[in-house]
């Protein structure tokens, strides 16, 4: 294990108030978002879109790393420069999504298990040789009647731990992403209970598998009420519940927590991250950062619409959202920033 390299990379991923850009959508997810906006669902459209993102001027000011999809890490810009080289030259650490998606968990209706362990060691070696320095694996857990089950939670935690160990074996920092989904009508208190249990089991499995905590990053959900819950909590209440949950479950050795946005609006994701850093930053053992996908990309996607003459405006939107989250990491974000674009 390349322990010191892992530690150095993990620290760099959450250093200087920067965050991680998630641009690792699978074919179905990316095509679905394109279809809603009338953008062609083609390889070239996806390539052009991701080129627009990685070539955004000034992106490195707020972004430390970018998570790519297998298609993207192999693509080049229109002038023939590999996407991964564009990121490296800009001082942004390239990463790669390596799970192959969440599938139905046998014997447990309504629950899923992420797949992709078969052949993973060889894929990780190839990605490292290509220049990637971290990876990501997402596990999905749903709150519902009698779920998530213990079986589902343990199965996903063990899979995350095995993935993380394989990553560290070849020198890639694993981003461990156990996502408790926002879907449903559950309360914030129910989300707290489920998230607490999930994280306890995940870190137990990471310990059993010998994962170096100093050389990994946690990418969790915030503790939130479900989207259909009648009672939607304040940003401060969400900040308090989230930090309380993580202080109970996340070891101090972990260098950083990079939140997923999970379907929150871009503005809410920034405001809630900001609330956590305003209230707790000086009291926490780990950095509180972001690894947003839609909350960083969606405004730009709605501007771009697959049109070359909209690239510059779309890039300004990417830059703006990155700067808003950079400010949120410092506890300096406010709603007035949304009019600065």
Explain this structure:
α9 crosses α10. This protein has helices spanning 3-13, 27-36, 43-54, 70-73, 83-89, 120-130, 150-170, 188-208, 235-249, 266-280, 294-304, 311-329; strands at 19-23, 63-68, 93-97, 102-104, 112-114, 134-141, 173-180, 217-218, 256-259, 287-292. An 8-stranded parallel β-sheet has the order 8-7-6-3-2-1-10-9. The protein is an alpha/beta fold. Helix content is 46%, strand content 15%.
Helix content: 40-55%
Q: Per the principal axes of the C-alpha atoms, what is the gross shape?
A: globular
Distance between the termini: 44 Å
Beta-strand content: 5-15%
Number of domains: 1
Oligomerization state of this entry?
single chain
Name the CATH architecture: Alpha-Beta Barrel
For the sheet with most strands, the description reads:
8 strands, parallel
List low-confidence stretches: none
């Amino acid at each position: 294990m390349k322990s010191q390299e892992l530690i150095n990379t993990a620290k760099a991923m959450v250093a200087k108030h920067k965050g991680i850009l998630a641009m690792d959508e699978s074919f179905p997810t990316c095509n679905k978002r394109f279809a809603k906006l009338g953008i062609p669902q083609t390889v070239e459209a996806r390539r052009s879109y991701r080129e627009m993102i990685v070539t955004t001027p000034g992106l490195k000011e707020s972004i430390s790393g970018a998570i790519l999809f297998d298609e993207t890490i192999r693509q080049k810009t229109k002038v023939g420069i590999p996407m991964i080289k564009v990121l490296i030259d800009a001082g942004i650490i390239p990463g790669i999504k390596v799970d192959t998606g969440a599938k139905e968990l046998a014997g447990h209706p309504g629950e899923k298990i992420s797949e992709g362990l078969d052949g993973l060691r060889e894929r990780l070696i190839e990605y490292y040789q290509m220049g990637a320095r971290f990876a990501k694996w997402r596990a999905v857990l749903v709150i519902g009647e009698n779920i998530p089950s213990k079986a589902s939670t343990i199965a996903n935690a063990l899979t995350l731990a095995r993935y993380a160990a394989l990553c560290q074996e070849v020198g890639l920092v694993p981003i461990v992403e156990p996502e408790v989904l926002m879907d449903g009508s559950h309360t914030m208190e129910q989300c707290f209970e489920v998230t607490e249990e999930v994280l306890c089991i995940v870190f137990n499995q990471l310990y059993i598998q010998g994962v170096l905590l100093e050389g990994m990053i946690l990418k969790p959900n915030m503790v939130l009420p479900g989207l259909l819950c009648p009672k939607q909590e304040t940003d401060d209440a969400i900040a308090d519940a989230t930090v309380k949950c993580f202080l109970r479950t996340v070891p101090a050795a972990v260098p950083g927590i990079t939140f997923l946005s999970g379907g929150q609006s871009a503005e809410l994701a920034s405001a809630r991250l900001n609330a956590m850093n305003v209230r707790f930053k000086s009291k926490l053992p780990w950095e509180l950062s972001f690894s947003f996908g839609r909350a960083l990309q969606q405004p730009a996607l709605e501007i771009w619409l697959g049109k070359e003459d909209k690239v510059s405006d779309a890039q300004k939107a990417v830059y703006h959202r990155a700067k808003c989250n950079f400010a949120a990491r410092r506890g300096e974000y406010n709603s007035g920033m949304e009019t600065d674009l």
